[in-house]
Amino acid sequence: MLDPRQLTQLHRLFRTGAEQATLALSRWLDRPARITVERVEQLPLNQATDVLGDSESPIAACVMQLQGELQGQLILAFDDASGLGLTDLLLGHPLGTAESWGEIERSAAQETANIVGCAYLNALSRLAAGQGKELLPDPPHFVRDYPQALLQFALMNQATHGDVVFLTETRFHIDGSPVNWNLLLIPDTPSVERLRDWLPREAGPV
């Protein structure tokens, strides 16, 4: 597990990623956007599925698989209304015009996840580059499922290595109004160990 100082350092990295993602998302949507990191924490596996709630309604998500020295998933998740509203924003249509997840709607969500996700990974890449390592994201793919099923699938690797998972939750605002999107970075357990080696640790007792 990461110690408090390491979590603070990682939070700072993610804040840098959020600043870059804010600029990229504003350009992509052609309107003011703001992204903030709400929390960075380590949780027991049995608590991790509560991050997106226990709703009985399915949610949509774009999942970007991480390769290289850090492995796991970067997930941009949203309820149907928020996700479909993204397409309306991009096409200049009134909110509520898009009613289902067709090809255009899925493509808009995937491109948004790619823009936002790459901004975060660029911040993490600075940390990896300092170790002579490389991060390689796959293109995002679209899924729609119930929150618990989505996270349980993403956490399958962690369950085979240990009982602690690492989650980052990010909030989004567009035109000053909050939208129900969440960005989760879920490294597998070996990748958390690599982060622990790369990040400065708290000084031990003398």
Top keywords for this entry?
alpha+beta; Chemotaxis protein chec; 7 helices; globular; 206 residues; 7 strands
CATH architecture: 3-Layer(aba) Sandwich
Number of strands: 7
CATH topology: Chemotaxis protein chec
Please report the distance between the alpha carbons of the first and last residues.
22 Å
- The rounded Rg comes to 17 Å
The domain tally reads 1
Low-confidence runs (pLDDT<50, min 5 residues)? none
Helix/strand order: HEHEEHHEEHHEEH
Shape: globular
Strand content: 25-35%
Short synopsis of the structure:
The chain has 206 residues and is of the alpha+beta class. It is built from seven helices and seven strands, in the order αβαββααββααββα. The chain has one domain (4-80, 113-198): CheC-like (Chemotaxis protein chec), CATH 3.40.1550.
Model description:
The chain is of the alpha+beta class and 206 residues long. The protein has one domain: CheC-like (Chemotaxis protein chec). It has seven helices and seven strands. The chain has helices spanning 4-29, 45-48, 80-91, 103-129, 147-154, 156-161, 189-198, and strands spanning 33-44, 59-68, 72-78, 135-137, 141-145, 164-174, 177-187. Strands 1, 2, 3, 4, 5, 6 and 7 form a seven-stranded antiparallel β-sheet that branches. α1 packs across α4 (103-129) and α3 (80-91) crosses α4. The longest helix has 27 residues, at 103-129. It is globular, with a radius of gyration of 17 Å. The relative contact order is 0.25. The model has no long low-confidence stretch (mean pLDDT 83).
